[in-house]
Design a protein that fits this description.
The complex is a heterodimer of chains A (53) and B (336). Chain A has 53 residues and is of the alpha+beta class. Chain A has one domain. Helix content of chain A is 17%, strand content 32%. Chain A has 1 helix and 3 strands, in the order βββα. Chain A has one helix at residues 44-52; strands spanning 8-14, 20-26, 39-41. Chain B has 336 residues and is an alpha+beta fold. Chain B has one domain (24-59, 85-335): 2-Layer Sandwich (HIT family, subunit A). Helices cover 27% and strands 21% of the residues of chain B. In chain B, the strands form 3 sheets. Chain B has a 9-stranded antiparallel beta sheet with strand order 3-5-7-6-11-12-10-9-8, with helices on both faces. In chain B, strands 2-1-4 form a 3-stranded antiparallel beta sheet, with no helix packed on it. In chain B, strand 8 and strand 9 (202-205) form a beta hairpin. In chain B, 39% of the residues are buried. Classes of the chains: A alpha+beta (53), B alpha+beta (336). The A-B interface holds A 1-6, 8, 10, 13, 15, 17, 19-26, 31-33, 41, 45-46, 48-50, 53 and B 45-48, 50-57, 59, 104-106, 109-110, 113-114, 117, 230-233, 235-236, 325-328, 330-331, 333-336. Strand 2 of chain A pairs antiparallel with strand 3 (53-57) of chain B, so a sheet runs across the interface.
């Protein structure tokens, strides 16, 4: 059986030439060990589903 | 240097992007610029390897958020514009040898979530009118890097193929009061011969009017216009049907199936496109295990495709390779 990944974590950095790069990770949230806390993106749809249930 | 040049014959923009001539071309597997940088190794595009999905600005873009100044002068006959936009690369996995078909469906679901996020973020930029999510897979399509990845172009205009579709959808809505793709889907469900796979939210079809032998479209069963309109369940079902189609493609000729995958959503120019209908289209270039369909004179010069096969037969062939995807029961998913 397949589990649904939940919270999405988005960590944006700036590369040496000025371009952006975004790491997307899903729970567990602390996998990357970022130097600053990553900003969780509100999971509106998951929240909506939870409300519906 | 890059710029947009107007083609007055067809009424569409062409991008020049001369810097792309120098882009990395089919590097050896141990020198992949899209693999995570290894300790002591050469620096790649991705400093860290512990991620699910990575998105970054293309190093060789045809559109830039701060565009170059055009090198040629504007004229009444030949309008020229800065090529303002965004070109992103989306890495599906840190694993160089993977592909979207080989990734587990949970990973494809994560990709759907990331696509949704990018559509929302790029679509909010004031100079962006259309966000185009796509993947070119396989050397037959002309890919220059094998690491599993897709791309996103954020255009400063509605591209011509999309504009044609929008016109057709709008005309159908005006003349019938109905959605064109909802009616196409109803017709396909009635015939059933061209349906390849389906789940609660989506159907995969080789369309009646397929231009490529294995051209496959994924249509949402519910009428909506973009990824950002999807429910949680629909996002999951989209991942499932993508996995079903991709696995069937690979199984067909026991090979990593080449294709172009494109996502058609509403423009982001602030206007209403309620008449439009979200869908994904796959254009695989293979017409048999070792033969390619080429875009030759009629296709390229006249715009009329010649399909050497029958969609009904190819759909049956592909359908035989579809495997069902089983997720956890709804309660354990939503509350986990």
């Amino acid at each position: 059986m397949i589990e649904v990944p939940k919270k999405m974590i988005k960590q944006q950095i700036v590369l040496a030439d000025g371009r952006y790069l975004i790491y997307y990770t899903f729970a567990p949230a602390d996998r990357l060990g970022f130097s600053r806390p990553a900003d969780p993106i509100p999971d509106a749809e998951a929240a909506k589903s939870a409300e519906e249930n | 240097m890059s710029e947009l040049r107007w083609n007055p014959l067809l009424g569409e923009w062409v991008a020049t992007a001369t810097q792309r001539q120098d882009r990395t071309f089919l590097p050896p597997d141990d020198y992949c610029p899209l693999c995570p940088t290894r300790p002591g190794g050469f620096p790649t595009e991705v400093p860290e390897g512990d991620y699910d999905i990575v998105v970054f600005e293309n190093r060789f873009p045809s559109l830039k958020s701060v565009p170059d100044i055009p090198v040629v002068e504007n004229s009444e006959l030949y309008p020229v514009q800065p090529s303002q936009g965004v070109c992103e690369v989306v890495l599906y996995s840190p694993n160089h040898s993977s592909s979207l078909a080989l990734e587990p469906v949970e990973q494809i679901y994560k990709l759907v979530r990331v696509w949704t996020d990018r559509f929302g973020e790029l679509g909010a930029l004031d100079f962006v009118k259309y966000v185009f999510i796509f993947e070119n897979k396989g050397e037959a399509i002309g890919v220059t890097l094998h690491h599993p990845h897709g791309q996103i172009y954020a255009y400063p205009f509605i591209p011509p193929r999309i504009a044609t579709e929008l016109k057709q959808f709008a005309h159908y809505q005006e003349s019938t009061g109905k959605c064109l793709l909802c009616d196409v889907l109803a017709e396909e469900f009635q015939a059933r011969r061209r349906i390849v796979a389906e789940n609660d939210s989506f159907a995969a079809v080789i369309p009646f009017f397929a231009r490529w032998p294995y051209e496959t479209h994924i249509y949402s069963k519910r009428h909506f216009q973009a990824l950002t309109d999807m429910s949680h369940t629909e996002a999951k079902d989209l991942a499932s049907i993508l996995k079903m189609v991709l696995v069937a493609f690979d199984e067909l000729f026991k090979t990593s199936f080449p294709y172009m995958m494109v996502m058609h959503q509403h423009p982001v120019d602030g206007l209403s496109y309620d008449f439009y209908h979200f869908h994904i289209e796959f254009y695989p270039p293979l017409r048999s295990a070792n033969r390619l369909k080429y875009l030759a004179g009629s296709e390229t010069g006249a715009g009329m495709f010649i399909n050497d096969t029958l969609p009904e037969e190819r759909a049956a062939e592909l359908r035989a390779h579809v495997r069902e995807i089983v997720w956890q029961a709804p309660n354990s998913q939503e509350n986990g």
